[in-house]
């Protein structure tokens, strides 16, 4: 059985600025960080369908510190989807919706999660990262 994580975040920003924070590798490095150390994850992300990328951080005894991905869909500035593989392989899809009045809804859907602990871990991670994303958007 495969589980799906579905979350929504609202930001006071423009859809273009949020899109840039999701697709620019230097901006991604500011909010996608090692959950345990807070160290930014180096990455070579590019919003190009078929592009293979990695997020890299310090390995530990349980993990090699690498997240592998491949861009599946780019519909600027409304949808972005890629694989996300660290142990098991998931699909992450971001959907951006301009709510007007300077607010944007960011919907996250992560599919292919194998069990409840992995689902809870993903929820914890994305919640923490989207808190950091908010700080990046305020800059």
TrEMBL record:
Protein name per its UniProtKB record: SRPBCC domain-containing protein
Domain of life: Bacteria
Xref: SUPFAM superfamilies: Bet v1-like
InterPro entries registered for this protein in UniProt: ASHA1/2-like_C, START-like_dom_sf
Family: Belongs to the AHA1 family.
Pfam family, one: AHSA1
Coiled coil: none
Domain Activator of Hsp90 ATPase homologue 1/2-like C-terminal, residue spans: 13-138
């Amino acid at each position: 059985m495969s589980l799906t994580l579905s979350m929504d975040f609202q930001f006071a920003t423009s859809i273009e600025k949020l899109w840039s924070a999701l697709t620019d590798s230097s901006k991604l490095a500011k909010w996608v960080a090692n959950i345990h150390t807070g160290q930014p994850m180096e990455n070579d992300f590019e919003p190009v369908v078929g592009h293979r990328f990695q997020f890299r951080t310090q390995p530990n005894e349980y993990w090699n510190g690498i997240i592998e991905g491949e861009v599946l869909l780019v519909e600027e500035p409304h949808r972005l989807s890629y694989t996300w593989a660290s142990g098991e392989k998931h699909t992450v899809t971001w959907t951006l919706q301009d709510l007007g009045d300077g607010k944007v809804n960011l919907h996250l859907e992560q599919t292919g999660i194998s069990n409840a602990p992995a689902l809870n871990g993903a929820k914890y991670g994305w919640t923490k990262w989207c808190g950091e994303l908010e700080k990046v958007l305020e800059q």
